[in-house]
Amino acid sequence: MPANPVIAQFGQHAVPEKIEAEMAKQGWNDPIWKQAIRFTVQLAEGDLGDSFSRQGEDISKRLRQVVPATMELGIAAMMIAVPLGIAIGIIAALWRSSWPDWISMAIALLGVSVPVFFLAICLIWMFPGMPSSYRLPPGTPHNFATEFYFCESVLTGQLTMAAKCMRHLLLPAAALATIPLAVISRITRNSMLEVLASDYLRTARAKGASLFRVILRHALPNASLSVINIIGFQLGMLLTGAVLTETVFSWPGLGSYVVSGIQQYDYAVVQACALVIAAIFVTLNLVLDVLFLILDPRLREGNRT
Question: What keywords does the record list, in alphabetical order (predicted)?
Fold first, then answer.
């Protein structure tokens, strides 16, 4: 297949003069340094360029549509993965080396072993009555002010529309949640085992504190730093790596957009998506660093000294 986007668009048998004219129009015949400067200036102005394969579509405008779709999907997946993963990890730690621990870790092993696309296909086959594509039923009229369909429906009291959005979210979110659920459960188990072996927890139990109080009041808060760290990392992975899930479920998000750009050799789209992905990771890491400073007094004391 041709690697030149103009040849990919017009075909290998296109008139050479037409190809050269289009290359000159796009500025792709300019030296690399000149193209880099032009791209940097446009980026500083907030201009991510136009899509070549989509007949001059504004990439910035398109990203404002696809990024919220991926964010809703990723957040929905984390809302499934975080509580279940923490609960499974706590159960595995409390009943270490027993059948609850074995079952919990088997679930975690399956979560990281089964390919997401295979699990997505299995979910579609197991639940044929559930929607398996797009964010809303085709032809559904709506007047959303933002691209956060589900959140806006809930906040504006459109419960019928919110129910439709949720039905379309369930299967892709469940498929996408498997890997973070597995990772969070393992990290929670290991952190809880380390905390449960502490002397102050044995002292609390000896003084008559209930197991429920010891877990929620003492053990879980002290084990939460590692869990929060992995939750932030997994959220970044979900928001930027949901390519397979979005492809299987025809979800119009960032993953589907970057795949279409790669398939059509649309370099402007790929560059813009790469910038957005990098910005998401940098932002999440910054938020995590600030959150650690707030939650861990040892880090604050270390910075003062």
Answer: Cell inner membrane, Cell membrane, Membrane, Transmembrane, Transmembrane helix, Transport
